[in-house]
Model the fold of this input.
Amino acid sequence: MDTDTLTIQVFAQNPKDFSGDLLVYLVEEDIAHLGDFGKPLNPVLQQIWSTGDFKGSKKQTFLFYPALLDKKQPVAAKRVLLVGLGKQDDDINIRREQLRLACGTIAKQAASIKAKDVLLVLAKEFLLDAEEIAQCSVEGVMLGSYRFDTYKQDKEGDDAPVRLERFALHHGGLSASAVQKGLERGRIIGQATLAARDMANQPGNGWTPNHFAEYAKKLAKKTSLKCKVLDKSALQKLGMGGILGVNQGSAQPPALVVMEHKTSKKNPTILLVGKGLTFDSGGISIKPGSGMEDMKYDMCGGAAVMGAMQAIAEIGLANVNVIGLVPATENLIGSASLKPGDVIRHYGGKSSEIINTDAEGRLILADALAYGIETFEPDAVIDLATLTGAVIIGLGHHHTGLLANNDQLCNRLLDAGSQVSEPLWRLPLGPEYRKQMDSRVADIKNAGSDRSAGCITAACYLQEFVGETPWAHMDIAGTAWDFTEKTYIPKGPSGTGVRTLVACLSQWEPLKPAEKK
Ligand code: BES
Ligand code: ZN
Ligand code: ZN
Done:
């Protein structure tokens, strides 16, 4: 993984002395000046403003070469870029997103002119606190300059794309210590999101259950996280018939990766569970061939949980204990594979009739949820999974499906998703849907007899294993890749979930006891 090649730092000198490739100012619509640290360039802005060529509108950019302006060069940078932020919005979440989008544009422009060394002067007038301005800016640039080229030859040469090497922030008149703090937070969260994208971009033969285990072990060495990997024989001893059943057709052994971020016993404990299906062929209920290669992305829930754990540990969240579980396996076809009609037994003893071997995500999550709740007695549980095609039919690629047995937890996730612009949309649960999963031979079956409410019935299956614990399920099948395309979210895996989880847990306070119905 080469997300570490970008250095992000504060620039403490005057921006006019920056002699790198690209000096950037963000410009709000209707504010025709560049602030105290852009004074020498104000005549340029006034000129293009009066011609109507640039007015700070969303997505607008203006690139120029200061050396051409005057005999006496007003700034030392090779190039200057002005990026429009659009109009000041009343909604703070839209303002956060304006910064990320504009900074994604900086990344795109830097790539197209092969700039390696970029300085952004922050905009003091922007209505957001300094720490957040720095955080959103760093996130936008990091996520926007992401590329996955691990398997490409010819990375050198004239035509080869150039990677951003240094991104520096100048405070622009904001509190320097707040900018430093926000930069650091943005860097950690950006890197964790890119790590999740990297895991997802890896092909099925480059990211197996063992890779999840190894990544977590490395994380535990680098950070304060504790890590334990339950291997096949441990899963057998524990009776995890869901993970083992799905794994039956695979040559790669399964794993249940356990990561712990421990603070104080007095703090609430939150359990995160992510589907780590490193390739989903559907099993005996095989998927159609066309597009099947995308099923290497069926581990994006696991990647999001691992990325979130990385960020949580690096930030050092002090208000919560967090447990991250990633059940990981492939779902393949062989003479030993699970068959429709088979009955398995989950951790804790519940039996399940397999109607469709392609409904495998719920089988591995059920074991992990039941085990995690019994072992860690969490105050709340959040799972993330590319669980159903049905959620894409319902919500497309622009909202994650959210289902929960607790309104408070649900609202916190909705809020966190809005803050980071990873929107969620709640869908209902209820006994009438659960009934669609009644089996004649076992405690539950893994698929309904028709396709109706497929996203909800999948969540009903999971709900069966969480008891009364406050629980929310995020179906990220539509948003984990080919998510709404944005300047800082390219085609391919988005890393969705990492930023939502970190935002949600950073603000965590104990849940109020649910009112009895
Ligand atoms: N991994 C898939 C869900 C999926 C489909 C994610 C398309 C992203 C894009 C999951 O394991 C699956 O195949 N679910 C089935 C369940 C059905 C058989 C009850 C589905 O959604 O079709
Ligand atoms: Zn499947
Ligand atoms: Zn799947």
About this structure: The mean pLDDT is 96. The pocket of BES (ligand 1) is lined by residues 280, 298, 356, 358-361, 386-390, 447, 454, 477 (CB under 6 Å). The radius of gyration is 24 Å.
